[in-house]
Amino acid sequence: MGKRHVYFRCHHTLHCCTDVVCLPTPWDVIQIVKKTGISPYEFLTFITPEDISEVYKSDPTWLKCHGKRYIMALKRHAGKGCFFLDPVRKVCTVYEVRPILCRLYPFRLETTRDGEFRSFGLHKDVGCPRHRDGKVPVEPLYQAYLEDEKHQQDYADLVRVFNRKRYRDKRPEDFIKMFYQEVPNK
């Protein structure tokens, strides 16, 4: 692919919004709440390894509750896709603050053996047509990747603290309380 650009153009098949599970960071969630005013309890869910095979068991964002693993995801409407996909207009209703994962998909960073940036390419399992009739600049992708790396580390740190907590009625939803507190209406 490329160090300066990737040949790709989105033809709006909605594959990313209907078939891909979005795993936002707490930072992404807060941006969505600020934009929409919707409580994260309404648009988040917690899925298990049986629900998603693309996430390694060693991923540091797995939440542990009573011997089971969960990972935070955007809710999906059965057969209709992401919680934020407008079913009529077929557009993302939080596009300006969509999770960084959504901004980067279907691109993936390719590195050298030493972990240094080499280029960007397309994920191997991209389910949409791989139209190469466009040219996407790499620099904004790389900046989004760097921003995501920072938020992923914060996310992993929060998960580590959550996983150390031991109490009787621990639920994955309790993780939200670690980075979000609802403000009561006055």
3D structure, described in words:
The chain is an alpha+beta fold. It has one domain (5-172). The protein is 27% helix and 19% strand. The chain is built from five helices and nine strands. The protein has helices at 15-18, 26-36, 40-43, 100-104, 138-164; strands at residues 5-7, 44-47, 63-65, 68-74, 76-77, 81-82, 107-111, 117-122, 135-137. It has a three-stranded antiparallel sheet with strand order 2-4-3. Strands 1-9 form a two-stranded antiparallel sheet. The chain has a two-stranded antiparallel ribbon with strand order 5-6. A hairpin with a 3-residue loop joins strand 5 and strand 6. The longest helix is centred in the C-terminal third of the chain and has 27 residues, at 138-164. It is globular, with a radius of gyration of 17 Å.
Which SSEs are present, and which pair or pack?
Layout: E1 5-7, H1 15-18, H2 26-36, H3 40-43, E2 44-47, E3 63-65, E4 68-74, E5 76-77, E6 81-82, H4 100-104, E7 107-111, E8 117-122, E9 135-137, H5 138-164
Antiparallel strand pairs: 1-9, 2-4, 3-4, 5-6, 7-8
